[in-house]
Write a structure and sequence with these properties.
The protein is an alpha/beta fold. Helix content is 35%, strand content 14%. The strands form 4 sheets. A 7-stranded mixed β-sheet has the order 2-8-7-6-5-3-4, with helices on both faces. The structure holds pyridoxal-5'-phosphate (PLP). The site of pyridoxal-5'-phosphate has 13 residues, from helix 4.
């Protein structure tokens, strides 16, 4: 008899976005002419930068010629891309990361989930609340939790609330933890972490022999020079951190798929019998066995992000979305809503006005203003009373959404 991974049965997942879709579809069915604008999901809207497209066209032509054809590539990614990342994203900013510490992949979502392959099953795991749901659900799938309670909190995970009350700064865990997920700039709250705050976490990890899984998928949206873009800007981070980055949001690669994970070669974990094990080696082994690399064409496209034109074009893309974020923030503030984030991140996190809870405001916004956002409670219990709007949209949609905000307050 076949058995299944019954941990999957514990998942509450699939609740948030399907429920949004269900409510939106019901609304559209009842109001077929209502011009609904979706500000809910974190997918980009603007096309790929010209520099990336040109590089990919060229790579396709190379693939059509026996002399320059590429079959299987290195599982860790091509040297040309790893070198460019090391040089531009790290070395030129004074951060120590070498090309062979960078593993190219098809997404940060996959990597943040897959990385659990190299860790044991008895780690105590801390996540922020609200949180990017992938960190939680992948741990549920791996059997690292018990069942969820009525608020969707899984037994066995340590939740660190981040709300306006603590200025969105998570307190250090009161109980010992081993793996800590940090995401900055943050999805969903759109807030960033100061150098001091990150130093506090790195110190905690070093003192407690813990490891930080640092998701920097939105680092390109940081415009404030005092905010670290990489955890490796923090002293001691090379001894206790793994970093995840992506081309999805800065270069519009959500559908093209390219990302990378940085694991310092000296990052070691001690086994139960006292052996020191390199996480870099374990991840390399994992990737070589379970992954066959990102396509040559896509890696050439990602490499073009680092050309002078690519840098200019991706900067323009980021600025475009950040102008959207500014319009959203100011539009919300103009109708008296408290707004967080959206300054160094493409997400605006707002306090639901009046007596509305997260889903109540969802319905209000949909019914009155025909706008769709994401209820904060869908990202965790501490997200109740908050709501996320995404700046990934066309300018026309953002402007129209802002015009409609007053309707949502009636
Ligand atoms: N990490 C965070 C925090 C995200 O919000 C997202 C996408 O929304 C990802 C990772 C996924 O990145 P990728 O497209 O590289 O899989």
């Amino acid at each position: 008899m076949v058995s299944v991974n019954e941990n999957y049965l514990k998942l509450k997942a699939g609740y948030l976005f399907p429920e949004i879709a269900r409510r939106v579809n019901a609304f559209i069915e009842a109001n077929p002419d209502a011009p609904v604008i979706k500000l809910g999901i974190g997918d980009v809207t603007e096309p790929l930068p010209a520099a990336c497209r040109e590089a990919m066209h060229k790579a396709i032509d190379e693939m059509g010629d026996r002399g320059s054809f590429h079959g299987y590539g290195p599982e860790q990614g091509y040297g040309f891309l790893r070198e460019k990342i090391a040089e531009t994203d790290y070395k030129s900013r004074g951060v120590e990361v070498s090309a062979d510490e960078i593993f190219i992949s098809d997404g940060s979502k996959c990597d943040t989930g897959n990385v659990l392959d190299i860790f044991g099953n008895d780690n105590r795991i801390a996540v922020l609340d609200p949180v990017y749901p992938v960190y939680v659900d992948t741990n549920v799938m791996a059997g690292h939790t018990g069942a969820a309670d009525s608020q969707g909190r899984y037994e066995g995970l340590v939740y660190l609330p981040v709300t306006a009350e603590n200025d969105f700064t998570p307190a250090l865990p009161e109980e010992p933890v081993d793996l800590i997920y940090l995401c900055y700039p943050n999805n969903p709250t759109g807030v960033v972490a100061s150098r001091e705050m990150l130093q506090t976490w790195v110190n905690y990890a070093l003192e407690n022999k813990a490891l930080i899984l640092f998701d920097a998928a939105y680092e390109a949206f940081i415009s404030d020079d005092s905010i670290p873009r990489s955890i490796f800007e923090i002293e001691g981070a090379r001894e206790c951190c793994i970093e995840f980055r992506s081309f999805s949001k800065n270069a519009g690669f959500t559908g093209t798929r390219c990302a990378f994970t940085v694991i310092p070669k000296g990052l070691k974990v001690t086994t139960k019998d006292g052996q020191e094990v390199s996480l870099h080696q374990l991840w390399n082994r994992r990737q070589s066995t379970k992954f066959n690399g990102v396509s040559y064409i896509v890696q050439r496209g990602a490499e073009a992000v680092y050309s002078p034109e690519g840098q200019k074009q991706t900067r323009e893309l980021v600025e475009f979305y950040m102008e959207n974020a500014r319009l959203l923030r100011e539009g919300l503030e103009a109708v008296g809503i408290s707004v967080y984030g959206g300054v160094n991140a493409p997400y605006v996190w707002l306090k639901t006005p009046g007596d509305f809870d997260s889903w109540g405001f969802f319905d209000q916004l949909l019914q009155k203003a025909h706008l769709v956002g994401t209820p904060g409670s869908g990202f965790g219990a501490a997200g109740e009373g908050y709501f996320r709007l995404s700046a990934f949209n066309t300018r026309a949609n953002i402007e129209e959404a802002v015009r409609r905000f007053p309707e949502a307050m009636k």
